[in-house]
Known about the structure:
The chain is an all-alpha fold. It is about 55% helix and about 0% strand. It is built from eleven helices and no strands. The longest helix has 16 residues, at about 145-160.
Amino acid sequence: MKLRYDPYHVFRFSKTPAGLYARQKWLGEAETDRWKIDFKETVAALLADQLPDGSWSCSSIKTIKCLVGLHLTVRSSTAQIDAALAWLLGKIDLQAEKIHVGVEDVTAVAPSEGLPFIKSRPDMFLTGATLFLSSIFGRQSNPDVLALYQRLNEEGIKNKGRWFDEASTHNVFRAMVVHPVFAKNKATALAVEHLAVLQTDTGAWDHDLPFYQTLNALTHLDLHQAEIQLEKAFGLLFENQNSDGTWSLDEPEWNTFLTIHALKNKGLL
């Protein structure tokens, strides 16, 4: 896809996790002294306030946000990351008949706020985020992680690709698409079919689903129905790129990151 404007400009001096990822992977700065200095500073800041129990401030949302930042920078799991993942997983009652969490702080998260997840029921926000992070940090075969995925897969099949409301469905779907097994399971395919019903002629999705997060999630899949939706969505991207190369007026760096990542997932950029 030939874009009208340079989409990388917003990242050129950025020290955010997304900016550092872009500078390393897309702008070829990984061997420069400037990038190395910025990388060390940002990672040190992310790790600075981690508590001995693995969390940040005993807060689920702060822990999730720091782990997303570490995914975009450190990439591979470490002892500190493993401790944080274990802390998050420990917040989910695995023995209950239904998934339950004893945490309220996740309700405070804004609709996007630099995350691939959106505001939803606390249990589905925490479960979706925890499974997503567990998978991308190499814990996709952990027995507790697999058990949670299996329960969600069964619920997704039963409810024809939905988990409670649309926001919760988005967060669970986000976790499904990054797991090597469950990305190919029936619940995920049903969720894609459900999204097709919600997509409008413009290429966006109804029910306040975030365009850039939804687009990015779909590009992790190799499904015909996902490709049909992406074709419409990519057309909308081309039409709505800002003259400075970014997308959206709300969180332009983050949404531009999600967009470029999506385009690259499909070999279009």
